[in-house]
């Protein structure tokens, strides 16, 4: 389902009037359309299937490099993401770190950021975003375990209420063999290390 730009634009115009502004003044004249264009980007993942990027897998034992079978986890750190908090419609942004224990099939590393992008471009809360990423990977890949760590800064914390400009939120979602804290401890440590 695509964002209805005309409707968003009309509603933003009404919002400007509701806060006491003049939507026809020069600085705001284009704002409703600009917000509609931005929302088209921010919410591009609504209605998309996040598992689609994981459909193309590579056989570990029969693939292009059978002599490089992973004996441990495959990890991709520092995946930048941005989303919009569904509680206040304010942005939050940060990094996703993903690890999985492959079975017979692996996926190209470029597929993992695509999963994050699809799920992040919806109205979200960070806790659910991490769970959805973990569920999508666990369901789509033949893997023994999945670990997703999200570290993000939320504008609802940094810009409103008891403003905390340096606070970040860290969430962990784990499936399979990595659901046990002891099993994931090494991976969590590696995710947090610079240049590891």
Characterization of the model:
The strands form two sheets. Strands 5-2-3-6-7 form a five-stranded mixed sheet, with helices on both faces. The protein has a two-stranded antiparallel sheet with strand order 1-4. With 196 residues, it is α+β, with helices and mostly antiparallel strands. 31% of the residues are buried. It folds into two domains: 5-41, GTP cyclohydrolase I, N-terminal domain (GTP Cyclohydrolase I, Chain A, domain 1), CATH 1.10.286; 50-192, 2-Layer Sandwich (GTP Cyclohydrolase I, domain 2). The protein has helices at residues 5-18, 31-42, 111-120, 126-140, 155-158, 181-192, and strands at residues 57-59, 74-85, 91-102, 105-107, 123-124, 143-154, 169-176. It is 34% helix and 27% strand.
Keywords for this structure?
alpha+beta, two-stranded antiparallel ribbon, GTP Cyclohydrolase I, domain 2, 34% helix, 2 domains, 196 residues, GTP Cyclohydrolase I, Chain A, domain 1
User: What does the radius of gyration come to?
Assistant: 20 Å
Q: H/E series, N to C?
A: HHEEEEHEHEHEH
Strand content: 25-35%
State the low-pLDDT regions, or none.
none
**Class of the largest domain in CATH?**
Alpha Beta
Order of strands in the sheet with most strands:
5-2-3-6-7
Number of DSSP E strands? 7
The biggest beta sheet is recorded as: 5 strands, mixed
> What fraction, in percent, of the residue positions are helical?
25-40%
Provide a short characterization of the protein structure.
34% of the residues lie in helices and 27% in strands. It contains 6 helices and 7 strands; from the N terminus they run H-H-E-E-E-E-H-E-H-E-H-E-H. It has helices at 5-18, 31-42, 111-120, 126-140, 155-158, 181-192; strands at 57-59, 74-85, 91-102, 105-107, 123-124, 143-154, 169-176.
């Amino acid at each position: 389902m695509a964002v209805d730009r005309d409707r968003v634009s009309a509603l933003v115009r009404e919002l400007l009037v509701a806060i006491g502004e003049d939507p026809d003044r020069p600085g705001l004249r284009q704002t409703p359309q600009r917000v509609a264009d931005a929302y088209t980007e921010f919410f591009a993942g609504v209605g998309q299937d996040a598992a689609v990027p994981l459909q193309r897998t590579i056989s570990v034992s029969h693939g292009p490099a059978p002599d490089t079978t992973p004996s441990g986890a495959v990890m991709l750190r520092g995946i930048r993401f941005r989303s919009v908090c569904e509680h206040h419609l304010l942005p939050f942004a940060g990094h996703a770190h993903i690890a999985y224990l492959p079975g017979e099939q692996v996926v190209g590393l470029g597929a993992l950021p695509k999963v994050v992008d699809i799920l992040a471009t919806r109205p979200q809360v960070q806790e659910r975003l991490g769970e959805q990423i973990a569920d999508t990977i666990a369901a789509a890949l033949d893997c023994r375990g999945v670990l997703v760590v999200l570290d993000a800064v939320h504008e609802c914390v940094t810009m409103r209420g008891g403003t905390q400009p340096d606070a970040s939120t860290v969430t962990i979602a784990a499936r399979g063999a990595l659901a046990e804290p002891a099993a994931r401890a090494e991976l969590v440590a590696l995710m947090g290390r610079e240049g590891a």
